[in-house]
């Protein structure tokens, strides 16, 4: 399979690594983007270590510089494990 961006690839050394710490991303019931993505849309991101997951969670939760001052992302982030 071809990938457009290298960052979409999994590092080969991590292919067989069990990832048990995750982040579930969902949208609030009132978010109009659900009409496009579907009522049950969610995205999971998995990590091998809790500290790695926590660092990614913090980065995902911050108000990034590419947002306009008036933008208010409504994603819901939830730490999970399996």
Task: Describe the protein in words.
With 82 residues, the protein is of the alpha+beta class. The protein has one domain (18-64, 71-81). Helices cover 20% and strands 21% of the residues. It has 2 helices and 3 strands, in the order βαβαβ. It has helices at 34-37, 50-61, and strands at residues 21-26, 43-47, 76-81. A 3-stranded antiparallel beta sheet has the order 2-1-3, with helices on one face. The model has no long low-confidence stretch (mean pLDDT 84).
Between the first and last Cα atoms, what is the distance in angstroms? 28 Å
Number of DSSP strand runs: 3
Question: How much strand?
Answer: 15-25%
Would you tell me the structural class of the helices and strands? Answer: alpha+beta
Number of domains: 1
Mean pLDDT: 84
